[in-house]
Amino acid sequence: MADNSREVFAPHSDNPLRQLTVDQLRRRTSLKWRAYPENVLPLWVAEMDTLLAEPVAQAIRDAVALGDTGYPTGSGYAEALATFASERWGWDGLSAKRTAIVPDVMLGVVEMLKLVSDPSSPVIVNPPVYPPFFQFVESMGRPVIEAPLGADRRIDLEALEAAFTLAVQGGDRPVYLLCSPHNPTGTVHTAEELADVAALARRYRIRVVVDEIHAPIVASSTRFVPYLSVPGGENGLSLMSASKAWNLPGLKSALAIAGPDAADDLLRLPEEVSHGPSHLGIIAHTAALRDGGDWLDSLLVGLDDNRRLLADLLTEHLPAVRYAPAQATYLAWLDCRRLGLGDDPAAIFLERGRVALNSGIPFGTGGTGFVRLNLATSPEILTEAVRRMASALA
Ligand SMILES: Cc1ncc(COP(=O)(O)O)c(C=O)c1O
């Protein structure tokens, strides 16, 4: 990366996205900065280039100082999430009694699917969608049925109904695996859309499992609506976590949350599932939700800035790329079909531009010709990434 990127580095900035240099980031040992050689700039997997929120770092330091590294217990994580949900989303329906700790969101999804479906039950998803939705479901042996998002990147109720019709013919106890907010498009489903989904699911007797991991990362102009809070959503099962919003995927833990009519299902969760999450993870996630609100607000401002910056950079350097800044997540879903780079532009950007983005292809129908770019980085790295993408066309 060009040396001038370091001159604008702002270690004392309030913006969590401007506190680490490329050299520091390259010393990290986690996936994002290690999967590719040093001359590749990585803006792919959903890790953020931030320091820890101070309350989180302090909670971990305190635990380490005490040797507090035993087994987890108690409902502090769920209570912190309930307070966060009430303050941020105006939702008071999260009862710690109807929650369970799970190792992480995707293993939580697997466990929820086991609770409300059979080994042959189809699972409906909305592509383009987070690729592990396919991988985890398929490795459970359950067939996936696609209900693609509409061209507006929103849930297409007709496509969903067609998928539900197919699903009820194809096997017992189908489940709809909803992503809210949606990865990779960053779509925030409205209360009305979610209520329509819930009504449709009830009509077809299809249970809904909803992955709400990105819920805290919603632009200030938009409001996240928990699925369990909408009329008809009472028999849903949700997975939430502080992992994405505070960059804690290495500190494993997440929460499964049952709506009032799904409480009995959650009670059937095998006790041993709660052995998976890490005690240190629960400490970190709890501190994030309880005391990390200011840090999150600064992050959200930084992400808004980066969305605008990306739009400007693309207009200037890659005007043929279609980009609609999202309302949520730190991911940008870029339509590169007019660039003439074929089905997998990410492969060309990597090979010719030395910049790593996610290929759209594993996201399922609607992913061909798209790339997913991770915005949770400094404006300087983002600028250099677009420069590299443009150089791939030269
Ligand atoms: C929609 C979605 N679900 C789940 C995960 C992974 O979460 P976890 O590491 O808690 O399984 C991600 C990570 O990016 C994600 O985007």
Automatic annotation (TrEMBL):
GO MF term (any one): pyridoxal phosphate binding
Swiss-Prot/TrEMBL cofactor(s): pyridoxal 5'-phosphate
Source organism, top-level taxon: Bacteria
UniProt xrefs under InterPro entries: Aminotransferase_I/II_large, Class-II_PLP-Dep_Aminotrans, PyrdxlP-dep_Trfase, PyrdxlP-dep_Trfase_major, PyrdxlP-dep_Trfase_small
EC number: 4.4.1.13
Coiled coil: none
Pfam families from the UniProt entry: Aminotran_1_2
Keywords on record: Aminotransferase, Lyase, Pyridoxal phosphate, Transferase
Name under which the protein is recorded: cysteine-S-conjugate beta-lyase
